[in-house]
Amino acid sequence: MARSPHADQTSGSFHAEVLRRRLLTPTGAPGAYSFSAEFEDTVSRVDRAVTAAGAADGPEVMRFPPIIARQHLIRSRYLESFPQLAGWVHSFSGDDRAHRTLLSTIEADGDWSAALTATDVVLTPAACYPVYPQLTGTLPAGGRLVDVMSFCFRHEPSADLGRMQMFRMHEFVRLSEPAAVIEWRDTWLDRSQRLMGVLGLEVQPAVASDPFFGRGGKLLAANQRDDRRKIELCVAVDGDGPTAIASLNAHQDRFGQLFDIRTPGGQPAHSACVGFGLERIALAIYRHLGFDRSAWLTRTREVLGL
Ligand code: ZN
Predict the structure, then answer these.
(1) Crossing angle of helices 178-198 and 37-54, rounded to 10°
(2) Which residue spans within 30-86 are E strands per DSSP?
(3) Which of 92, 212, 218, 294 has the maximum number of C-beta atoms within 10 A of its C-beta?
(4) How far is CA 210 from CA 54, 98, 230, 270, in A?
(5) Which of 226, 262, 232 minimizes the C-alpha distance to 249?
(6) Model-level pTM greater than 0.90?
(7) Is the Cβ–Cβ distance between 94 and 102 less than 8 Å?
(8) Are 161 and 68 within 8 A, CB to CB?
(9) Around ion ligand 1, which residues have CB less than 5 A away?
(10) Ligand 1 centroid to residue 169 C-alpha, Å
(11) Could you read off the pLDDT of 89-119 as tens digits, one per residue?
């Protein structure tokens, strides 16, 4: 790959420069930023490039707010694997007296959290989660393919610019018979690497595992790696180590079972998804091609319409 004059920015200088140029501005909560007009424009262009990469397959487009019904998160068994990452939405539903107690407890810097109760919604943990409850029932012949993009929440406060608590993820989700799903996943393994290459990012696919919680989680992670069910495309984003900017996930019949999604033959559907972290990809382009968008590689500027 042709190296841009900025290609060897160190991690520390990149981080400082992103903030100095106000591409990202801290908001007071770790991992939550205000995005500048230019950064937002770059993210939108990356989003459109992802859409274009999958357009030939004619996916159905679904969009959701960044919340899902609490019952659906419970049904997905997310809390068994990732309780530490989930974002429950709580609110106040007490009377005047409870309200006065809440305010005086806050005033006294006490623990006011008991005054709040869980609402019917939780923050979306991954863009594909709202899709499965929509598909309960029998798939049409050939299965379904969905294009979905959403802000997602992960409770992992960090100073790493590439590890936001809320970020956008653009996914394609395929549900069908096992062989068709794996063939589709393998098509995207090739396609996603080519897309990242056009964006100037030299990624290497690596077998990976999700951050399953607790001691039991170690076994789940080992099984996931052994079956090569999760493959990540990684590149340096903020820190010097590799950060995943895209991932390909084969779920076998997990979501088919959990949400009663069946093939025309009556079997639980298999599913897979490919997800692109839009802010991470945008940051990685600045990291590897420099801060002057007009000096980015010709092929990168072409695919982004710059
Ligand atoms: Zn997914």
Answers:
(1) 140
(2) 33-35, 60-63, 67-69
(3) 212
(4) 25, 41, 8, 19
(5) 232
(6) yes
(7) yes
(8) no
(9) 126, 128, 171, 273
(10) 9
(11) 999 999 999 999 999 999 999 999 989 999 9
